[in-house]
Structures are given as structure tokens and as C-alpha cells.
Amino acid sequence: MIGVAAAMLVFVYLLMTKTVYGMKARASIQVPQMAQAIGIESSRTNMLTFSVGCGLAGFAGAVLLPIVPATPSMGFAFVIKAFLTVVVAGPVTLTGSALTAIGLGGGASVTAIFMTSVVGDVFFFVITALLLWLYPMGISAKWRRKL
Questions:
Q1: Cα–Cα nearest to 137, from 84, 87, 103
Q2: Tens of pLDDT, residues 103-113
Q3: Which residues contact 18 (CB under 8 A, 6 or more apart)?
Q4: What angle, rounded to 10 degrees, do the helices at 2-18 and 93-100 form?
Q5: What domain range includes position 121?
Q6: Per-residue pLDDT tens digits for 7-50
Q7: Most buried among 7, 27, 57, 136, by the most CB within 10 A?
Q8: Same-domain status, 49 and 102
Q9: 89 near 99, Cβ under 8 Å?
Q10: Within this chain, do residues 41 and 95 fall inside the same structural domain, yes or no?
Q11: What is the dihedral of CA 37, 48, 71, 68, to 10 degrees?
């Protein structure tokens, strides 16, 4: 699963930084009025970006299927941690989210190995609260390069 997640991270990074679609998507997300002014159909690009996101969510569900039983609420256990990871990451979502996921998820997993899974979850939420207190705009708020 870690290898598949790393491969998808590289895929999304390359998609958003090295393709014309990625350039249009970033422009439409950051300054939609300017993107429309230079001829980018922001509504169409946003729809395609939403579709890519839905496809990634479906792919994530397929990757989780061998571990978590297929039920309507199979992703609920991961939604809160995923949301908090993105919030802690801040505005540079791809790079910040990757680093935050490695830090928070890795720390919680290591803590759970040596203690219990409950202590691992407590570690995750305490470190999340601490990081949000120290960096209210996210850890990547002051980074200059976006992606």
C-alpha cells in the first residue's frame, strides 16, 4: 500500500506540474477570474479536476479493500485523519500533505507499534493540535514554491 500511495503521489505531482491540464487547473484554482481572462474555461477545468479527485478517491477505496471490509462506511475511519492532515499541511497541498502524512501517520504508527493503537491515535491528534496552534495557516503557509 505504501508503494501504491507513493506511485499515486508521483502521478498526481507530475500531472499537476508537467502537463497543460495541470497548469490550467492550478490557474483555475488560484485565480479563476484571471484564468478566464486568458481563455481558460475555469468551470470545465474545475469539473475535470473534481472528476480526477473522485477517481483518486475511488482508487483509494479499491486499494483499501483488501484491508477494510467493503461497507458503505468503510472510509469513515480514515476521513477525519485525512482531513486533519490536509488542514495541517496548509496551502501547498500536495507537498505539504505528503510531508504531513508521513510525519503524522508515521509517528502515530511508530507510537502504536511500541504502545497501543489508541495511544497512536492520541499521538496523532495531540501533534495535530500542537501543529495547528503553532502554525494556524498550516505548515506550508510560508513556502514560496507551490508544488
A1: 87
A2: 888 888 888 88
A3: none
A4: 160
A5: 75-147
A6: 988 898 899 889 999 888 888 888 888 888 888 888 888 899 89
A7: 27
A8: no
A9: yes
A10: no
A11: -100
